[in-house]
């Protein structure tokens, strides 16, 4: 039995919804319009839960708080709306294991390297990820970036952490270290796994790290480097979704024709050699 199509939108915060670190109130109207059109929405950002308070307050005032999922620190944790309307932080299993078992050790190694290189003062203690800002940095940012990348590679090579770590560069050159299995891709997959039906839709973002939210052929990435670009795209999202569905039908039809032409894959009948 075919599952019904469910429209979805995965959206980065800075760029599509916020400009110069401040929420653009016009984007809330666009989000409310998408909710009315039946879209399931997830906002997936590198920001901390503390820095998402303005957004949470805005969607609550607009009456769409219960309709939007919010993931912070590149998917390491989720802000979950409780029945009483309050929001609580929930650290996902992948990130929790890192936080409990290895984060302290990794933090000490990175801070020691930062002390040696002279940028310890820009370290910010997030809930899960390890963040080195460019704000107040007294050395060239390229030097800081190289030190964080090299130290993270060394931690991985020596197996000092229970999981592989990755480094992400933000739009202003800051560096973030987090577990490989707790990223925007992981957050997108968690959100889509809760969808009843077949999710089809779009992922909006302004950086290459946002492209990983587009999981599989049913989710198309749409560049949105500013609130203006997101608002324009949201106005025509229903039309774009119809085009997307037609493209997916053409792709499935082409695959069926290719299979019919070549025939089903035959099993290998070559006898195995005995050793």
Tally of individual domains? 2
Radius of gyration: 22 Å
Query: How many strands in all?
Result: 13
Which sheet architecture does the biggest sheet show? 7 strands, mixed
Q: Give me the CATH architecture of the largest domain, please.
A: 3-Layer(aba) Sandwich
Mean pLDDT level = 89
- How many angstroms does the end-to-end distance come to? 47 Å
CATH fold-type name of the largest domain: Rossmann fold
Structural class: alpha/beta
CATH homologous superfamily placement of the largest domain: HAD superfamily/HAD-like
In which range does the helix fraction lie? 25-40%
What assembly state would you assign to the polypeptide chains in this entry? single chain
SS summary, helix count: 8
CATH class of the largest domain: Alpha Beta
In the predicted model, the low-confidence regions spanning at least 5 consecutive residues are none
Description:
With 275 residues, the chain is of the alpha/beta class. The chain has 2 domains: 5-92 and 182-250, Rossmann fold, CATH 3.40.50.1000; 95-179, Alpha-Beta Complex (Hypothetical Protein Ta0175, Chain: A, domain 2), CATH 3.90.1070. Helix content is 39%, strand content 22%. The protein contains 8 helices and 13 strands. The protein has helices at 26-36, 53-61, 93-101, 103-117, 141-157, 184-193, 227-235, 237-262, and strands at 5-11, 18-19, 22-23, 40-44, 68-72, 77-81, 87-91, 123-125, 130-132, 165-169, 175-179, 198-205, 219-223. Strands 7-6-5-4-1-12-13 form a 7-stranded mixed sheet, with helices on both faces. A 4-stranded antiparallel sheet has the order 8-9-11-10. Strand 5 (68-72) and strand 6 form a beta hairpin. Helix 1 (26-36) runs parallel beside helix 7 (227-235). The chain is globular, with a radius of gyration of 22 Å. The termini are far apart.
